[in-house]
Specification:
Strand content: 35-45%
Shape: elongated
Number of domains: 2
Largest sheet: 5 strands, antiparallel
Distance between the termini: 46 Å
CATH architecture of the largest domain: Roll
Radius of gyration: 22 Å
CATH class of the largest domain: Alpha Beta
CATH topology of the largest domain: Chitinase A, domain 3
Low-confidence stretches: none
Number of helices: 2
Order of helices and strands: EEEHEEEEEEH
């Protein structure tokens, strides 16, 4: 009988005690509500959000709240606008003539467009249409709002070299390229 023992690395198995830190791939189930309790976004069942911690893949306030947590941990965090999508910037709201929207016959509140500015292109959404005047807003829709997250950490693993060099997760839940 041969007493030779061989070992093989089992891919993607990490200890349950691994803490969230820079360079870790983190999977979370989450629910996001505004201050009125309205659900803004949530992960789908069996489809956690997967991100590379420390690489600005999620808002800074949530990333800070998750640092040091482990798989199985839950976190409730209220994120201030400054650590979310920023405060409202009044300069990003503008009234423009309706004729600037060439080819759009039925301009409606909520429509989104790409606007070319001196600082480069930005996304804007229509917030008001009055006669020949259209008010557009270049702020993120969640700018100026407190964000209330309920999160469950489902997995934490080391990122591989390619993920670290690209700054994002590859494979299931990440970028396929």
């Amino acid at each position: 009988m041969d007493n030779k023992v061989t070992f093989a690395k089992i891919r993607n198995q990490t200890p349950k005690y691994m803490e969230i830190a820079e360079g870790k791939v983190v999977s979370i189930d989450y629910n996001l509500k505004d201050d009125e309790g309205t659900v803004i976004d949530q992960s789908k069942p069996d489809q956690p959000l997967v991100y590379l911690h420390g690489h600005k893949n999620i808002i800074s306030g949530l990333e800070s709240a998750l640092a040091g947590k482990k798989a199985g941990d839950t976190v409730d965090a209220r994120i201030a606008p400054e650590e979310g999508y920023g405060p409202l910037n009044a300069e990003l709201e503008q009234v423009v003539p309706k004729d600037r929207f060439q080819g759009v016959e039925d301009l409606q509140v909520g429509m989104q467009f790409q606007a070319n500015t001196n600082q480069g292109p930005i996304s804007v959404r229509v917030v008001k249409v009055e006669g020949d005047q259209v008010t557009v807003d270049g702020n993120h829709p969640l700018a100026g709002k407190h964000l209330n997250f309920s999160v469950k950490v489902t997995d934490v693993r080391d990122a591989d070299e390619e993920e670290l060099s690209h700054g994002h997760v590859h494979g299931k839940g990440g970028v396929e390229h």
